[in-house]
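Schema walk-through. Below, the input block comes first and the output block second. Nothing else is stored per chain. Lengths vary across the set, and this one has 135 residues.
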Amino acid sequence: MYPKRLRAKKSGQPHKVDELCHKDILDLKQLASDIEFNCHPKKNANGDTTKISEVKVLKITKDAPSTILYKTGYQQEEFQTTTLSRRNKNRDVKLKYAYSQKDGVTNKKKTGLLALFKRRNKPIPKNYLAFFEAL
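--- output ---
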C-alpha cells in the first residue's frame, strides 16, 4: 500500500522504492566479527607503543592495506610502520541472514485488526481482509 503511494508522487521525480523481504537483510554484525581485524596495534616496527591520539599523519597504501604508515609529528621525516593483524585467519566467511523467519504480529494485535472489519463504519475496506487474516 505505502510503496504504491510513494511511487505515485505527483510533482518532481517519482521515488524509487525497493521492497524488502526478511531474507534480504543480512547479519553484518556477525560478518564483522567473523573477519575482525585487530584495529588497535600495540607496537610499531621499532617496538614502541603507539597511541592513536598522538598520530598526526596517516597513510595507507593500496599495495599493503594491512600496513599503516604514520607520523607522530609534522616535522618527522620518515613514516613509522605498524601492521593490522587478523584475529581470525578463516577466509571462508559465509553471509548469514539476520532473520530466519518473518516477524509476525501478536495474536492480540491480529484480533484487534480483524475486529476493525466487523465495525459499523468499516475503517478498513473488505478487499484488505485476506491480507490481515494472513498475518
